[in-house]
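chain below, 81 aa
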Amino acid sequence: LVPVENETVHRQVLNEIMGANLRDQALSWRLGPDGEYMRESIDPNAFSAHTYFMTNPSLSGRGSALERARGGPRLVTEKTE
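prediction:
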């Protein structure tokens, strides 16, 4: 649960996040009636919420990081100025 303070913007973002996660088949598991989990899909072209958010900077929070990392992503372990 999250507070929705700016109704329009927050609702749009929440709908986008929930829609992508509900649509995800690449990284999803389904709980069967016997209590066992099974992979949702092994199709290499299945929709992946992870890939979707990593390639949509406005939703992933990585907008400025993607601009700085045009040569490819890199891991930063310490804050640099």
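Strands lie at 29-31, 37-39. The first strand starts at residue 29 and ends at 31.
thats it, cya
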